[in-house]
TrEMBL record:
Record-listed FAD binding positions: D49, R107, D300
Family the entry assigns: Belongs to the aromatic-ring hydroxylase family. TetX subfamily.
Reaction it catalyzes: a tetracycline + NADPH + O2 + H(+) = an 11a-hydroxytetracycline + NADP(+) + H2O
Predominant location: cytoplasm
Keyword Cell division in annotation: no
Protein name, UniProt field: Flavin-dependent monooxygenase
Enzyme class: oxidoreductase
UniProt xrefs under InterPro entries: FAD-bd, FAD/NAD-bd_sf, TetX_monooxygenase
Length: 385
């Protein structure tokens, strides 16, 4: 592939930015189109655990491992499983001083690492894409919300769960998983919420019962994200609670978790942020498509799956793998075929492992998060196993 090849990445998330960074490391031109108006227009999400064999491997391939490591929080690997009635710790995984298998980093910080590494002007902000059309000669036409179009030799759909690029290669649409998270947060926890800070610890706290659960995850800067896990229909709130009324949502959740320990209920009662309804969706296990010249997908656009810490790791690995394929093959089509031949079975194995784990969490046994991580990564790295 020569340096005149026109490549578009749709979506300035972690996977798309990892791909753009990889291409620029190889001296290849690329443009990233992002519908958001700027890098700071919204909060980018909570904390991520970057796994040694996937996310960290992608950071090394992107030449950004040292920048990641400077921001990472190895202590964030701490995992606590609590009894919902007594709030006693029933499982406690504490990282050693040298444990860096899956250190945590805020998603926004990680995104900034990628953005700061790109040539100025690589990301075109406020450029919403509405779709892509194959032109029949191996190239594609990208359509924008402002009515304009641009032609490219390759369009990479890195635009997440509700991708505008996916329909060009697949009829699949995300389906509701049956699980909804209701999210909120606590700020300045060590000074303002010391009891809750001690409850959560340095990493992730989780407590589960049938059909419901609570988890909390420490981010940087004394910030904790809180998630109520509900096994409910997609329209659970209709005729039940007004999602725009924070007090009503709080009261509803306190009723759902009535009888749980008061310290755990404090995660909901003392929230500093609004409550946000987040239904979880996924794509069919083994989602794939017939190879389409000039178009491909990565990250959640290709393989949306349950939230077991796999998505961001896989997206970045997809991005660096695709960039490497494009840099080492003589033509775009061969590069994309080579990338898809690795990415599709890898993501299918990970999606099946996530589904199996989601099913296993229906019991009330303490969650061994470290075992989950290693099981998922083993399936990712050995998809035929």
């Amino acid at each position: 592939m020569d340096n005149t090849t026109r490549i578009a990445v749709v979506g300035a998330g972690l996977g798309g930015l990892a791909c753009a960074r990889g291409l620029q490391l190889h001296g290849k031109p690329v443009t990233v189109f992002e519908r958001e108006l700027s890098r700071d227009v919204r909060w980018q999400g909570g904390t991520l655990d970057l796994h040694a064999d996937t996310g960290q491997a992608a950071m090394r391939a992107a030449g950004l491992y040292d920048r990641f490591h400077a921001l990472a929080r190895p202590e964030g690997q701490e995992q606590r499983a609590l009894d919902p009635i007594t709030a006693e710790i029933v499982r406690h995984d504490q990282p050693t001083e040298t444990d860096d298998y899956a250190p945590e980093i805020d998603r926004g910080q990680l995104r900034d690492v990628f953005l700061d590494s790109l040539t100025e002007g690589t990301v075109q902000w406020g450029r919403a894409v509405t779709g892509v059309t194959s032109l029949g000669d191996g190239t594609s036409s990208l359509a924008f919300a402002d009515g304009t179009t641009l032609d490219f030799d390759l369009v990479i759909g890195a635009d997440g769960a509700w991708s505008r690029i996916r329909p060009a290669v697949s009829d699949a649409v995300p389906a509701y998983s049956g699980i909804t998270f209701v999210e909120t947060y606590l700020d300045d926890v060590d000074s303002r919420h010391p009891i809750l800070a001690r409850l959560v610890g340095n990493g992730t706290m989780m407590t589960l019962s049938r059909a419901k659960g609570l988890s909390a995850q420490r981010n940087s800067g004394g910030h904790i994200r809180v998630y109520a896990h509900l096994d409910v229909p997609l329209d659970w709130h209709v005729d039940t609670v007004d999602l725009d009324d924070d007090a009503a949502v709080r009261d509803y959740l306190l009723g759902v978790f009535d009888g749980w320990h008061e310290d755990l209920l404090g995660l909901l009662r003392e929230n500093d942020g609004e409550f946000v309804n987040r239904p979880l969706y996924d794509l069919p296990i083994g989602h794939s498509w017939a190879h389409a010249p000039g178009i491909t997908l990565l990250g959640d656009a290709a393989h949306l799956m349950p939230p077991f810490g796999v998505g961001a790791n896989l997206a970045m690995l997809d991005g660096t793998d695709l960039a490497d394929a494009l840099a080492t093959h003589t033509n775009v089509d061969d590069a994309v075929r080579a990338y898809e031949s690795v990415m599709l079975p890898r993501s299918a194995a990970a999606a099946q492992a996530c589904a199996d784990l989601m099913e296993s969490m229906n019991d009330e046994a303490p969650v061994d998060v470290d075992a989950i991580r290693r099981h998922l990564n083993d399936r990712i790295l050995n998809p035929q196993a």
